[in-house]
Every structure is written in structure tokens, then in C-alpha cells.
Amino acid sequence: MSLLQSRGRAWLNRLLLPSAPSPASGERNFHPNYRPDIDGLRALAILPVVGFHAFPDWFPGGFIGVDVFFVISGFLISTIIFKSLDRRNFSFVEFYARRIRRIFPALLVVLAACFVLGRHVLLGSELEMLGRHIAAGAGFVQNFVLWNEAGYFDVASELKPMLHLWSLAVEEQFYLAFPLMMWATWRLRINLLIPVIVIFLASFAANLYGIGHDPVATFFAPQTRFWELMAGAMLAWFARGDTAAGDVRRRAGYPSAAANSIVSLVGLSLVLLAIFGLDRSMPYPGVWALLPVLGTVLLILSGPAALANRFMLSNRIAVSVGRLSYPLYLWHWPLLSFQTIINGGSPDGDQRFLAVLLSFILAWLTFRVIERPVRESNRGRKLVTGNLVLGIGAMAVLGLNVGYFARIYDEPIRKIVAVWEFSNYPGPPGGHSDARYNLLTYGNNDKEKILIIGESHALQYINTIATALHKRAAKNEAGAPEVMFSIELVYPPSISDQVLDDASIKTVVFSYFWALQYRSEKVNQPIRCCGSGLMGVQGMRAPPFTVERMNELDAGLESAVRALRKAGKRVYFILDNPFGEELAPRSLVKRGFFHGIEVVTNPPPLSRREAIERDEPTRSRILKIAKETGADVIDPVAWLCGETCPALSADGLPNYKDYDHLSFDALIHRVHYLDALVMPRGMDDAVRR
Predict the structure, then answer these.
(1) How many domains does the chain have?
(2) Which of 34, 278, 299, 555 is least enclosed, having the fewest CB within 10 Å?
(3) Mean pLDDT, the chain, whole residue set
(4) For 472, phi and psi rounded to 5 degrees?
(5) Is residue 19, in this structure, part of any structural domain at all?
């Protein structure tokens, strides 16, 4: 036991006690000699990233530029740490102070600019989300925030100006953990390569496992990305005897400059293959990330004199772009994202080109006016470093409290925004679960029940029905029916024998978004409601149904209705309410970089004729089934439209909450075609209308 204790005490002393002073103890941390080809390699990383975000069809795998950056960072940072530890003069204070002066200035400028622009053009929850992401970017935890929100390639990602800061967060997490680990390993006199290899293998294994189980986490999590940084760290360990990487080439056995040039060409080919051969549909990172990682390792390994490095990566243009790579990375995505938000959709090619051009201009200005002066100045470094830390902390606090700084808009905009921000219809009071069917139910009447079947276009009428029942109760009229809502996501609906045999169910009402159920090409599916896509819309398109498939749906619906009619029940179809881009609240306001947010003065009207035509051929199919089965039809268009179908009510409130759902206010105050369901005189008035 005493032997174990003595060995443990010796290890603890090695870890905690200072080492013997060295002749170089008064020197600062080691910093590698400048390699212009690494700046060129940064250009090879940033240009595909910008290209992928602006013109994804041209650079389908451009997102791999981030992997190139990871390897470069792993190599350069590890070189500093390994050489400084070899010289026994590694300083944590200097290491982190240099990282702060390198990273914080440009980041602060971009975060502040995004806050100002966001306050100018964002609404409600959009500004709150931006503030949350600004705080996460300032705290270098953006990868964890995005991990919990959505995937990198989701359509909703276009609305997140701070999305790209996830990779900076991963690097900062590496900067925090890796130096401490290497210093502790060195103090314990363990070969530094051992933990590097262990981390590489564990991280790569987690990456391969995670890509098949949780691809979003695998994309953003540091533990599944550190292997890329460790690839650079392993290269730095082997090259630590010579900063120009000549020693590593000799150790690896490359006998000539020609062999090094071949290595560089192979590395360049792997990176280009990843840029133009991969795309967002492939599971990533996974095994595919080996292409850019290995390619980058080979390019660094081959040295600055190798063919590809000397003529392609070290040329003047590549080096200049590489020097701007960090501020260019910070600027390009927010500009593209805000442009998308302001347009209400993806910008056209000219707009994207202008955004990229402006990104380069801002990157150059940031580099020349802010980044380089702060980094190269020898005066007041401690004061500058402290102020940068305070500035980043202030941005985090500002982001978390962004609501206090939101703009106050005039009444018309506030009315539209209130509906735009509205998500789920509130459940009116009085609802309960039916004892027999376990369905959401309003009213109590064991002898007369109404069953409403459908999806969200049935659910939207809950408040309409509840309001009508409340009015009847206020008049002390007895005999109001009990109304049950059966929300069916499968179409056509199937009717159970229990419902058919239940004599208390007198009436069955079908209310679907029929045009969507029949996959009509006239429904603009990608901009519909209720998804995680752009502006909270669906963001994807399902293929249209064939005529044969629509005929099958007709047959299924007709069979259900005939069974209900045979059982002696009255059947109603509620046709589609008007739908379209013209009606959605987001189309009633316009945004601009200069004028901010304004109400659209003359929104394009949706005529009654166009509303009916847009619903074809589905509308005619439902009408035909109703005629052949003896079902009744309720037509919302007849109630909601005159010559046109207004998007706004007379008091300026939107009639719709999105592309195809009625607003809560309209359902309570302006939808009356279902009132007669619960009135003593029945539905004849609604049907005749």
C-alpha cells in the first residue's frame, strides 16, 4: 500500500509542482514560422463554404471547408503547445490572451452589427431567437444550442444569422480543453502523442456511431469533431522538430521534392473531390469527412515547397483571401441569412452575388481596421485583452435580454405580428373527454351528438363551435348537441362499427384541407404552415398524386359516407376555406435594410373566382361525392368572400394565421357557417348559403 501511495504522490507532484527553470524560461510561447501556403489553405477552406451557402448547386460539398479549418487549427495550436512544452516555457495566460486578441475583435463587430440589423428587421420571436444565438455565439456554445434546435441543413437554418458560429464554438472548446490536457500529460511525463491518438480514435468512433443514430448531434457535438483537430495535432507532434515540416517528411520517408509534390497533389485532389463530390444528402461527417481531413493533412505534410502548395496555395490571391478567411466567414452567412429573411424567401442569384461581394468588402475592412491593429499592437495589450473579454460578456448579456431593446411598432404592424406569432389555437373552456370514444368534446347530450372528423382544418373550428355553444347556453336554450372532434391524420378516414351503431351520433361532419389531402399541385406546399422551415412553414414538397390514386381516395371517402348514410346519419362536407400566399400575415408586411418593417399598402387581392379555381380539381371531386351520396356541403368561400377574399378584416386584423388556416379572431368573430350546427333550426341556412 505504501508503494502505491508513494507512486501516487510522485505523480501528483509532477502534475502540480513547477518544473525546473530552463534557459528559455523568460521567453514567450513558441510560435511557428509563417507558411504562406497555410493561408492559401485557409482560402481553399473558406471559398467553398461561402460558395455552398450562396450557390449550393455550384459547390454541393462546400460545407467541408469547416473540416479543413479544423485540421489547420489542430496543427497550428498543437505546434505552439508542443514546442512550448518542449522548451518548458508554456504560458496559459499568453496562450489565451493571444486567442482572445485573435478571435474576439472581429466577432464583437459582427455580433453587434447583427444585433442592430436584427432589431431593425426582425419581429417578436425572431428577435428573441437572434438574441439567444448572439448570447450562444458570444459564449461559444452555439453548437449546443443548434444541436437542440435543428439540423445544419434544415430549411429553418436559413433564418439563423448566427448559425455558422457553431464551428467557432467547437474550436474554442478545443482551445479550452486541449492545452490543459497536454500540460497535465507533460507534467506527468507521459508521451503527448498517447492522449492525442486516444482522443482521435474515440472521437472518430463516436462520429461513425453517431452518424447512424443521431446525425444532428454528430454534426454539432465537439466529441464527434475533435478527431479532425486531433489529425492536425498528430501532424504537429511529428513535425515539432522542424516548423517547416521538413523533418516530418524525412521521418515519413519521402526522399525527394518530387514525392512531396505528389503528396500535395493527392491532398489537393481529395479536398476538391470532397467539395464537388459530396452533397448535403450524404450522412456527414461520418466516414465521408475523411476526404477533406486526409487531404488537408497531406497538403500541410508536403510542405510549402511542394508543387500544389507553392504554385496554388502560396500565390498572392490565395494568400490574400486566406488572411481574410476569418472575418469573411463571420460576415458572409449573416448577410445571406438576413437577405433571406427580408425577401421572405431565398434571394435570387444577383442578390446572393451582392451579399458575397459585400462580405468580402466588410471582411477586408474588418481585417485592416480592427483585426490586424488589435493583433499586432504591442501597446496596452492587457487593457485591450480585458476590454475584449468585457465586450464579449456584454454581448452575451445583451443577447439574453434582447427583448428590452425591441422596436415598438405602430398599431397596424402590431396587429399583424400578433397573428403571425400565433401558433396553436387555445383550447376554449368547457372541453372534456368523451367517456365512450375518449375524444375532445364540448357540450353534454347523450341523445344528440355531432362527430367532426378531420385534421387541422377540423381542429381550427373548435373555438367556433365552443363559441356557438356558449351563445346558446347564454340564451338558456335547452337541447344543444354534444360535439366531438376526431382528429384523423390518415386519409381517407375509416368509420368504426361503434360509430355506425351509435344512435346518439346524429350528424358526422368531415373537414379536411382537401386540396392538400389530394396533393393538388396548386397548393404551395413548401411555404405552408406548421413546420420548421422558412418563416415557420413546412419547407418541403410531396409529389402530386396520380389520377388513379385520387380515384382511390374518392372511393374510400365515398364508402365511408355511404356507410354513415345507411346508418341513418346526416353527413356534411366543409369545403376548403380560401388559401394562398396572399392571405398569410407574413405577406402583409414588407422588410428592408433601409426602411425596416412596414405594412404592405396594397397587397395583391385573391378574387373569389381565383380562390375557387385554386381549389380545383379537388373541390369538384368532393362536390361530386356529396351529390352521389346525399351528403350536404358547407362552402366557406360563400361566407368569407365577396368579389375578393380579404386578408384583413375591417378593423385591420388578419383573417388567416398562415397560408391556409383561419386566424383565431376570425374563427371567433367572423366564421358563422357552423353556428347552425348547434342551433335548433339545423344547418339548412348554412347549406343554402
Answers:
(1) 2
(2) 34
(3) 88
(4) -70, -40
(5) no
| Region of residue 215 (left: phi > 0; alpha: psi -120 to 50; beta: else) | alpha
By the 10 Å C-beta count (0-12 exposed, 13-18 middle, 19+ buried), 94 is classed as middle
686's grid cell = 348554412
Q: Which of 683, 644, 641, 643 is nearest to 666 (CA)?
A: 641
Q: Note whether 266 and 324 are same-domain residues.
A: yes
Boundary of a domain, candidates 367, 400, 433 = 400
- Which residues partner with 507 through β-bridges? 450, 570
Is residue 570 a contact partner of residue 630, using CB atoms and an 8 Å limit? no
Is there a single domain that holds both residue 150 and residue 198? yes
Amino acid at position 339, single letter: Q
Same structural domain, 438 and 373:
no
355 and 449 housed in the same domain: no
Name the β-bridge partners of 89.
none
Amino acid 262 reads: I
30 has pLDDT over 90: no
The pLDDT value recorded for residue 144 is: 93
> Do 378 and 450 sit in the same domain of this protein?
no
pLDDT band at 593 (very low <50, low <70, confident <90, very high): confident
End-to-end CA distance of the chain: 95
Where in the sequence is the domain holding 577, given as residue range(s)? 414-688
Lowest mean pLDDT among 236-250, 285-299, 385-399, 579-593: 236-250
Does a structural domain hold residue 11? no
Q: Is residue 521 part of a domain?
A: yes
Q: Across-strand partners of 453?
A: 486, 510
Contact 233, 78 (CB under 8 A): yes
Q: Residues 67-108: pLDDT tens digits?
A: 999 999 999 999 999 999 988 888 999 999 999 999 999 999
Please tell me the predicted confidence (pLDDT) of residue 408: 84
480, 678 contact by CB (below 8 A): yes
Instruction: State how far the Cα of 598 lies from the Cα of 582, in Å rounded to an integer.
Output: 16
Q: For 484, phi and psi rounded to 5 degrees?
A: -110, 145
C-alpha cell at 491: 386519409
Residues 373 and 451 in one domain: no
Task: Write out the E strands in 481-529.
Answer: 482-487, 505-511
| pLDDT the model gives residue 600 | 84
H/E stretch holding 369 reads none
Q: How far apart are CA 336 and CA 54, in angstroms?
A: 7
Residues 491 and 364 in one domain: no
Q: Considering only 155-164, 189-198, 333-342, which range has the smallest mean pLDDT?
A: 155-164
562 with 455, same domain: the answer is: yes
Instruction: Look at residue 544 and tell me if it is in a domain.
Output: yes
What whole-number distance in Å separates Cα of residue 219 and Cα of residue 207? 8
Query: Tens of pLDDT along 364-376?
Result: 999 999 999 988 8
In terms of average pLDDT, the best of 468-472, 556-560, 669-673 is 556-560
Q: Does the pLDDT of residue 351 top 50, yes or no?
A: yes
CATH number of the domain within which 679 lies = 3.40.50
Work out the number of other CB atoms within 10 angstroms of the CB of residue 124.
Answer: 15
464 pLDDT higher than 80: yes
Distance (Å, rounded) from C-alpha 78 to C-alpha 84? 10
pLDDT by residue (tens digit) across 256-271?
788 899 999 999 999 9
- Window from 137-141, 238-242, 281-285, 622-626 with minimum mean pLDDT: 238-242
β-strands 570-574, 505-511: how paired?
A: parallel
Which of 349, 373, 400 delimits the end of a domain? Answer: 400
